[in-house]
Amino acid sequence: MQQLTISFIGGGNMAEALIAGLRNAGHEGAKIWVSEPQQARRDFLMQTYAVKVSADNAEVAKAADVLVLAVKPQQMKPALNGLSAELKADVTVVSIAAGISSSVLHEWLGDRVSIVRVMPNTPALVGAGMSALYSDADELHKQRAEYVLKACGESVRVERESQMHAVTALSGSGPAYFFLMAEIMKATGVKLGLSEELASQLAAQTALGAGKMLTESDRTAEQLRHQVTSPGGTTQAALDEMYEMGLPAAVRKGVIAASKRSEELAG
Ligand SMILES: NC(=O)C1=CN([C@@H]2O[C@H](COP(=O)(O)OP(=O)(O)OC[C@H]3O[C@@H](n4cnc5c(N)ncnc54)[C@H](OP(=O)(O)O)[C@@H]3O)[C@@H](O)[C@H]2O)C=CC1
Ligand SMILES: O=C(O)[C@@H]1CCC=N1
């Protein structure tokens, strides 16, 4: 079957993660176009993923069956300038930008365009992405977006666009919370006498193992935590200290701050 042409406006971190997922899933490089202002970045993407690159947004937009908007929210309006007239009649526009609503995208691209809002995350780069989508466009457009997302991991639909703020705060930004935890665990392991390499390996493999248990076990996170925590043991000592230092409140406030920031970006 003929593959869709998937074009990206912006070839940064998140675009690369989706491109890697698509390529790993067998999508042809010749059917992926990327527009990106920086020559060095274009060269990198072309050499690494064998995709087509351009400095001209209109050129890649014109070719697209699916057009992924992958610039920062603040860069979006200028990046879309003049693109509306270039789009195919049945194009699916997938915006991955935090905050920017479908109605604002319609203002910038016109009412006739079918828009799917998506919040992916960077683990798409290794096929372990988590994405959520919202759209009131036809089913075909949602399925096209899901084709991209499912090449990169899991994908779910949300019923209300307003839920995208919470999604962004959990799974969009979420990898950074776990990376921070790994950074702190590694640095502390080094302080306790381990080599950098060993401390990194212990933190990373532990994160992977915990993540696999969370996704594969039918137990809740709380139950899995209890399994590790022997009464009066080492884990109990760690968790008591973490609670005492306010870790749960810090995480809760952080997630709420991310959701609020997404709402601000919408404004
Ligand atoms: N990173 C993440 O984990 C996630 C990001 N997102 C969303 O993805 C989007 C992109 O984020 P991210 O990949 O991190 O950002 P990046 O800054 O890495 O990527 C954006 C890219 O777009 C380029 N660009 C800027 N202006 C234009 C333009 N007018 N036309 C074409 N390309 C342009 C930038 O070039 P230059 O550097 O020269 O400005 C940059 O290479 C954001 O809207 C973000 O909200 C969503 C989920 C997760
Ligand atoms: O930090 C950001 O704004 C983007 C959106 C979610 C993850 N990265």
UniProtKB/TrEMBL annotation:
Pyrroline-5-carboxylate reductase dimerisation domain: residues covered: 161-265
Similarity-based family: Belongs to the pyrroline-5-carboxylate reductase family.
The gene coding this protein: proC
Location of the protein in the cell: Cytoplasm
Domain Pyrroline-5-carboxylate reductase catalytic N-terminal, residue spans: 5-99
EC number: 1.5.1.2
Primary site of residence: cytoplasm
Binding residues annotated for NADPH, in chain numbering: 57
Protein name (record): Pyrroline-5-carboxylate reductase
Organism annotation: Mariprofundus micogutta
Keywords: Amino-acid biosynthesis, Cytoplasm, NADP, Oxidoreductase, Proline biosynthesis
GO cellular component, one term: cytoplasm
Pfam family, one: P5CR_dimer
Top-level lineage group: Bacteria
Keyword Cytoplasm tagged: yes
